[in-house]
Amino acid sequence: RRVRRSRRAVRWPPVSELLDAKLALRREMRAMRRALPDAADRSRRIWELVRAMPEVADAGVVMAFASIHGEPDTAPFIDWCRAQGKTVVLPEDEPPPDPSGVDVVIVPGTAFTADGHRLGQGGGWYDRFLVRLAPDTLTIGVGFAPQLVDEVPTEEHDVRLGAVVTDAGVIRPEPAPRTR
Question: What pTM was estimated for this model as a whole?
Fold first, then answer.
C-alpha cells in the first residue's frame, strides 16, 4: 500500500543550496582572514576583551582551541589562563574535555552574527559538544571584526553562542536555549 504525502508540507531549501551557501561564506571569510594585514594586533585586542569578561576572570576551567592560520592567535590567551591558575582544556585532548567540567568555552568560527550564530569549519564537533554543556557555561565565539556578518546559513542543530568577541567589541545576544 502506498502512503500519500500531503502537498501542503513545508518546503525547506534544498540541502545542496544550504551547503553551497555555507561553503561560499567559508571561502569568503577564510580569504578575508588571510588577507588581514593587522591580524596580530586584532588578536591582542580580542584577548584583552575576553580576559576582561567577569565569567572568564572567575573561571576555573577554560576550554580554548589551538588556532590555525587566519584565526585569532590563542597561544597568548592560553598562557594567560595558565598563569592565572586556570585549567585549560582543548578539543583535541585525550580524553576529550568533559562538558560538565568546563566553565567557559572559547569557540572558533569562520563567521558570526550579533545574535550568536556561528559558521564553523563544517565538522559539527562544537555543535555536538556545546549542546551538552551546563546551562550556566558561557560560550564565547572569537573572530575578527570583518567576520561579524548579518546572517549565516543555519540548520536546526546549530547552537547559538552566549557572546561574540571581535577586535571591535563584545556582543552579548539574548540568551538562547542549547537544546535542538
Answer: 0.87
